C-alpha cells in the first residue's frame, strides 16, 4: 500500500451515478444487489490510482474493479458515493468483502508505511506507521493476503522478473510496482561497495 491523492468527483457523477443510483435504492429491496452504475466511473478511478490496485500497489491490466471501501452490505447509503470508491483487483476486493473500517483505508496511508522484502517479495509494516494505525495495518496485510499470499507473491514476482530480465527499467518498475522498485533501491544502497 502506498499514499494516494484523492481526486475530485467527476463532473458527471451526480447526474449519471448518484442520482440514478439513489432512485434505484429507493425502489428496490435491501437484499437485492444494487445496479452497478459505479462502473461508469472506473476510468476516472483508475486514473486516480495511477492504474495500480489501491491495496497491492501494483498495476492492473485486467481484473480491475470498483471497491466500495465501506461495503454495500453494511453501508448501503454509501453505494453511489465517489468518496467511497477505491480502485482494486477483483480478487482482493472479493477477499476484503465486508471488512469495512477494520481495513486500513488507502487514503490514510503515509509514505513509507509498507515495504517489500527481497528476495522473498513479502510485504511488511514499517516503523513509520503511527501506533494508532499499527493494528489496523497488520490486520489489513493478513486479511487481504498482502503479506505473503501465494497469488500476491506470484503477482510481485511477475513484475520483478521483468525488471531482473532487463525487459523493464527501474523507472518503469517504479511506475507499475513502486514498492518493489523501492526494495531494489534499498537493497542496492545496503550492498557493500566494491573497491
Question: Your description of this structure?
Answer:
The chain has 195 residues and is mainly alpha-helical. It has one domain. It contains 7 helices and 4 strands; from the N terminus they run ααββαββαααα. The strands form 2 sheets. It has a two-stranded antiparallel sheet with strand order 1-2. A two-stranded antiparallel ribbon has the order 3-4. A hairpin with a 6-residue loop joins strand 3 and strand 4. Helix 6 (170-176) crosses helix 7 (178-190). The model has no long low-confidence stretch (mean pLDDT 93).
Question: What's a concise summary of this model?
Answer:
With 195 residues, the chain is mainly alpha-helical. The protein contains 7 helices and 4 strands; from the N terminus they run H-H-E-E-H-E-E-H-H-H-H.
Write the layout of secondary structure elements.
Blueprint: H1 13-27, H2 42-48, E1 64-68, E2 85-89, H3 90-96, E3 114-116, E4 123-125, H4 131-143, H5 150-164, H6 170-176, H7 178-190
Helix pairs in contact: 6-7
Amino acid at each position: 500500500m502506498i499514499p494516494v491523492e484523492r481526486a475530485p468527483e467527476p463532473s458527471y457523477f451526480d447526474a449519471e451515478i448518484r442520482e440514478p443510483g439513489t432512485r434505484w435504492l429507493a425502489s428496490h429491496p435491501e437484499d437485492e444487489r444494487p445496479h452497478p452504475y459505479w462502473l461508469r466511473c472506473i476510468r476516472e478511478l483508475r486514473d486516480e490510482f495511477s492504474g495500480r490496485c489501491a491495496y497491492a500497489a501494483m498495476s492492473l491490466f485486467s481484473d480491475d474493479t470498483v471497491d466500495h471501501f465501506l461495503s454495500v452490505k453494511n453501508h448501503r447509503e454509501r453505494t453511489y458515493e465517489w468518496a467511497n470508491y477505491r480502485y482494486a483487483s477483483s480478487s482482493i476486493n472479493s477477499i476484503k468483502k465486508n471488512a469495512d473500517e477494520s481495513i486500513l483505508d488507502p487514503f490514510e496511508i503515509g509514505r513509507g508505511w509498507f515495504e517489500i522484502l527481497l528476495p522473498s517479495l513479502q510485504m511488511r509494516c514499517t516503523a513509520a506507521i503511527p501506533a494508532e494505525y499499527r493494528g489496523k495495518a497488520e490486520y489489513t496485510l493478513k486479511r487481504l493476503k498482502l503479506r505473503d499470499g501465494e497469488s500476491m507473491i506470484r503477482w510481485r514476482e511477475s513484475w520483478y522478473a521483468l525488471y531482473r530480465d532487463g525487459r523493464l527499467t527501474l523507472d518503469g518498475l517504479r511506475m507499475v510496482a513502486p514498492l518493489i522498485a523501492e526494495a531494489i533501491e534499498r537493497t542496492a544502497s545496503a550492498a557493500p561497495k566494491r573497491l
